[in-house]
Amino acid sequence: MSGERENVRGSRSRPSRDSxxxxxxxxxxxxxxxxxxxxxxxxxxxxxxxxxxxxxxFKGNSISTTKYNFFTFFPKGMFExxxxxxxxxFLMISILSMTPISPVNPVTNVVxxxxxxxxxxxxEAFEDWRWEKCSLHILLCLNYVQQKRFQNDMVxxxxxxxxxxxxxxxxxxxxKLQVGDIVRVKQDGxxxxxxxxxxxxxxxxxxxxxxxxxxxxxxxxxRKALERTWDYLTPEKAAEFxxxxxxxxxxxxxxxxxxxxxxxxxxxxxxxxxxxxRGCSLRxxxxxxxxxxxxxxxxxxxxxxxxxxxxxxxxxxxxxxxQRLLKENEENQRLKMAKMNEKVHFLALVQxxxxxxxxxxxxxxxxxxxxxEEVMMNSMNVPSKRSTLERKLDKLILxxxxxxxxxxxxxxxxxxxxxxxxxxxxxxxxxxxAEFNPGNRFVxxxxxxxxxxxxxxxVIPISLYVSxxxxxxxxxxxxxxxxxxxxxxxxxxxxxARTSNLNEELGQVEYIFSDKTGTLTRxxxxxxxxxxxxxxxxxxxxxxxxxxxxxNGIKIQxxxxxxxxxxxxxxxFDDHRLMRGAWRNEPTSDTCxxxxxxxxxxxxxxxxxxxxxxxxxxxxxxxxxxxxVTAAKNFGFFFYRRTHTMIHVRESCVEKMGKIQDVxxxxxxxxxxxxxxxxxxxxxxxxxGRLVLYCKGADxxxxxxxxxxxDDLKKVNRAxxxxxxxxxxxxxxxxxxxxxxxxxxxxxxxxxxxxxSLRGRETKLDEVAELxxxxxxxxxxxxxxxxxxxxxxxxxxTLSRAGIKVWVLTGDQMGTAINIAYACNLIxxxxxxxIISSETDAIREVENRGDQVExxxxxxxxxxxxxxxxxxEAQHYLHSAPGPKLTLVMDxxxxxxxxxxxxxxxxxxxxxxxxxxxxxxxxPLQKAQVTSLVKKGARKITLxxxxxxxxxxxxxxxxxxxxxxxxxxxQAVMASDFAxxxxxxxxxxxxxxxxxxxxxxxxxxxxxxxxxxxxxLTQFWFTFQTGFSGQRFYDDWFxxxxxxxxxxxxxxxxxxxxxxxxxxxxKRYPELYKxxxxxxxxKWRVVVTWACFSVYQSLVFYHFVIxxxxxxxxxxxxxxxxxxxxxxxxxxVVITVNLRLLMICNSITRWHYISVGGSILxxxxxxxxxxxxxxxxxxxIYVLMSTFYFYLTVLLVPIVAxxxxxxxxxxxxxxxxxxxxxxxxIHRHELDDNTSAGSLEAGSQRTxxxxxxxxxxxxxxxxxxxxxxxxxxxFFAAQLGIYAPQKAWDVARRASMKSKPKMPQRN
Amino acid sequence: xxxxxxxxxxxxxxSGDSGVPKRNSKRPKYSKFTQxxxxxxxxxxxxRWVVSTFxxxxxxxxxxxxxxxxxxxxxxxxxxxxxxxxxPVLNRTNKVQFIQSDADKxxxxxxxxxKRMKQPIYVYYQxxxxxxxHRRYVKSRSDEQLKSASKENDTSAxxxxxxxxxxxxxxxxxxxxxxxxxxTYSFSRQNQSLTxxxxxxxxxxxxxxxxxxxxxxxxxxxxxxxxxxTLNESIPLNEQEDLMVWMRTAALPxxxxxxxxxxxxxxxxxxxxxxxxxxxxxxxxxxxxxLVLSTTSWIGGRNDFLGIAxxxxxxxxxxxxxxxxxxxxxxxxxxxxxxxxxxxxxxxLWSMVPLVDSIRFSYAVDSTxxxxxxxxxxxxxxxxxxxxxxxRILLMFKTHPSLPIGTEALHHFxxxxxxxxxxxMECLKHYIDxxxxxxx
Lengths: 1307, 440
What we know:
Protein name (chain B): ALA-interacting subunit
Pfam family, one (chain B): CDC50
Keywords (chain B): Membrane, Transmembrane, Transmembrane helix
Organism (chain B): Salix brachista
Largest sheet of chain A: 9 strands, mixed
Number of helices of chain B: 12
Structural class of chain B: alpha+beta
Shape of chain A: elongated
Oligomer: heterodimer
Number of strands of chain A: 34
Largest sheet of chain B: 5 strands, antiparallel
Helix content of chain A: 40-55%
Family (chain B): Belongs to the CDC50/LEM3 family.
Structural class of chain A: alpha+beta
Shape of chain B: extended
């Protein structure tokens, strides 16, 4: 295999490895990876011999991923709880309150703490236990991101697998599996443990596996068993297999495996190629037989829980770093710069993806070579995201701590000054405790400080966190997950909030980064139109054309589908001139034939399933290709089988109407697609010996290579291309060339030579391809529709009205990206476009010269120049009035340089000034980088939405990650915070749920802050009149139940039910969302306002109650004592604080009344009972209620206390209304429950009002070329026996139908 | 959607549009709770509400205030400060030494009754700078011990007044009891003494439940230092009302405690002679001592605070409601939005429609002054609210996206929505003419 290459890299990255690992094993590590230090010693496994393995006591195959089990639940759960500062603080306070210096009974602090802990623990237990119904596939994915659930484990552990026992396959659960067992895994099954691959039903001992669970890639990879073990396929044969495996100890390195198979007295080296890892699944293979090597938690999927070091990551953030890297390594300097970058990107991506530390991007200084990229596969905790609001809340809590400190300090100083022997009645002379000893005032002050901390501990709202958690939990599980507006019936997918941490963040999003494919578009490529020999076929009208026509007031009549129309995935074409063999009657029937053959032959599609036109499915790297092959099938050229050298096509109606013949074309060479070539060619030999080169690709590259002549056709075809492009279609040009055997032979020699070269192989291959891809004859062009998702343009329109900026980050071509941006209303003709592209002649010229360093410098300069120019222009437009909206289009290569620290600021400035930004040809890492750029650089709340593995990094880098669910592929969803089925559900998610959550959480926090501060301040004022002794004003139980009973429930009700305007109005006035973006409800100003009212109210409570009690309080002349007065004050506090809550409500349901009334009632019930039981407050409430004073005060104090708030609220609404308040007033006469009607109305309102033009000319000149597929080249080459270095894991590449991982993997 | 009702009625049987009811449908079930459509009232604090609330407060509070004030003014109160007067002039340089000495502390003061006082007249003593609410003091008592004789030795909280040297527990123990006030007063008018009834001065609950029937004082004030009054060891605690009053600790360092009742009327201008035994030491901490004679009314003793507070709040409310009403009519919502401003006949509205449809405004609102300013780079779309014949133009702002986010401009012109009430066509023209709305 790739011994030489491996050496080169291996010696750099793992210098000590080879010498230590015994016999030289050709293990193929991914470059730049450092393997985890190995556990000493080897592992010897006796296959198929349980007894022999017994002494070693390998671990079983059952796994447990739950956070807790029965025994660990309590200690572990408690530990988790006390990791929170607030809980820790209260634990400390509780301990402190048990000491004599405490003014309060320990119960004051222990009771709330216990209640809070209890609630949290119940919630934890519930979540751990929670049962999510999903397939095994998803469970394994869950495993990958550590969604730990007890019941999920049960499913995984009890899945059945065939194990060889007594020459029979016996189904046993996974957990019963032991090291050394021989197992059989059937097609589409998952590997239950790490297996040694022995035999496969495929003739050549290969099998195809999908590693999506490990690395998120959905392409197929090939594993090949050792030739010696190929035969052990049947149970009878397999039972005879007695091998001994000596291998390394379990480790986390995904891409390495060293070991030997000692078998029939021979030592056979094992490589990763023979290892099938747990969690992967078998594809395209009937079944395989393997021996278990690692089980359970020793499998590579599960091997370790924690990253080796959390500091150990570096994203390839800056270019300077890459250059240093180059300097360090002579060998690498000759590697293509771009390639290098991509690799760095790849690794860095892995870091981001797995360590989830992308947000830390800026503080990175760790040597690059020590990245354990294998961390990737670990089932490790992605650190959960915290919302910005919560981080601000931390600051608020800190401020409260500051307040607490100040209050205690004042009290402490006061107590030091106050304490004096002259107060003889305090008994301060004989043997007084240190806390009251006037002899040492300093000690008195110090101890009083602690006393007061205990006394004022209520200023920190203990139940705040748990309340917020509960609110958010209900918000996400009951409201978001169950919203019918976000339920997608077609895919039967409701929305899913995977984390409840970020609900309110949804209300503050300012930037949305969207993937294109699968998110904005359906990734449903449909063959829509074609142009053959200068004639356009196909009668459909695209969405974009419809939209344009609508805006121009033209009504397009939907054509009735004719009888010939075929409805199939990937084929939405109807033209009676071509269908059912009718093409034979066309004047250009020969061209048609070539056209269809080109479609059927020139591709890298793999057929799957039954070889009949109805049942076959095509696997391809890009859905475009599948669509083209499907089209060929429908035109009568049915491609049904691919072998290593042949393509079999069932052609009908070619020679004669109605005649069917199977033709096998020999594929001689595949000149694969890449981004520079932008074309793909196949050299094939007809059964009759005719040698043809079929080529398809971008119009620009094809036109350059056409033979001269036939200009008419070229011109007509180009016109058609432009027409297609303007309709938003993706186009390809098809061409062919007949080859003479001599030409071919001489070329093929060069090709093989190039293929086997070690350095610059790609360049050489490209050069060789140039030699034969010339003098082509144009056949025609195809147009594929990339269907937009439902409601996308309207959604984007709404979002932009809400002040949210949508950026599209796509791996697609610039043209495609711009097309889609037009279709989605992101760009229109009124906008000024800035395009920064690397596809300029100047750059190409330098690139052709091939000096990497020069290229890098040149592009960087170029990008800098362009950025500067654009920025100047942008500023010019901004200051000119009324300027056009601006938009920026940039490609990945330029972006790479623009993200350099020196240019980053400029890039940020420019892009923030643009209404929309489109980045095309970007790698997954760049998506993450752009996201971080805005997140870090502009400090705005970002949201990323995507559907595929390539969006994972972006999803994790943003504040909020959203995955599109409902279709296959779980990577994005698994990495996301919220999963929705359709892009346009963003409207509901952000404008309704986000806006409400934000509002609610803000209110809840502010209210908590207020009620605790108010309560504590009354204590504080009392302290001044007790000689700073720290005497408590309230009874212990009043204080301990204040937070958890008397004021707990109403605020939760507000957190659940409050809404400023109804859902339909939120969507009708998206502008309201801007209040969230501006953070209007949780500014420091808001907090300060609340604090002022707290101070005011606490003064009212304290002084009104105290002052009015100075004389006898009823006609009996008896005086009230301290506890009477404090009970009085507490009653006022409870009533006022609960009423104040009603004042902040925008909508009041009966739950509000019940909870507010209930809380006040609860207080009275409590005190009625309690005052009978307790000594110090004995009978106080009855004493109080026997006086007029009580009723007069209870009426007066709350009203006076709320007076200020009321005036404030009235004036605020009257003179400085929030936008939402204005909307409330406009619609206040409308019925409340108008959601259904309203949303329809909102929907109809969404129609864009701007007079949009059809696509502009300059864009239509973009002919919409969009096609890219990673090559199959090495796969075919390998099959042909051509020496080609390949990577163990990346031989065959099957694209998922949804995601196109843009991580370049080819060497 | 219409399917909401459908699914709720047939029990989540799948939506109407999907046709085939799926057994494993993940369609959430409809409920008012999960769809957040619970019926709710939406209180909106409109100017009218503000004004009427203030009015209501005024209407309720002013009479209460007056009643309270009258109630309080009915009370006749005579206060006499005596802590200095009752020290012989010679001893005034060292009052503490005097009070701690065995000298005769009898002292006579006289009080003039300003107004006829009806019986019962309550006699209070008032101490100042006496921290009955000090933490050390408050907890220095044993409620258990006070309640039952069996808990006599429950004196852990009472230090340092817990155990008399070698003679067992002190009952009642603790600093509070120890420092029991011990000045005594006897009243006479025209050489005819007035009896002071010292019964019924404690709260009934104290008497019945908190102080035990068969708990008798023991070892009280028997220690080295005598802190205050002594108690008759033959009277059970539940009849020692002075102690009960004293032990209901006051909330503030200045407090009054009931001493007794004089159950005869006192006439105006009468001079009452008080012979008092000035035993209690407030001189160490410069505390004042006052003797108070007071009648009561329904509201209790003399305390204008509540009445004044009610009256003030009522007045302020009234003033505010008047003020807001004036603002409401004179300057209705600063020309932004006036819900009932019906100066524009409907015909005008409709005649305005074509005009409004055909112009495009360019304006902005300055969020600090809340005034229309022209800013050319803002685009607005217009929505006519045609309900209620109110001529109202709703101006929807779209902040111009090309403005650099995060620059001053956006913060400055942060408001995105504004409602302007236009009185008529002329008004619109006026706005246009005066340049407040620019036509582009």
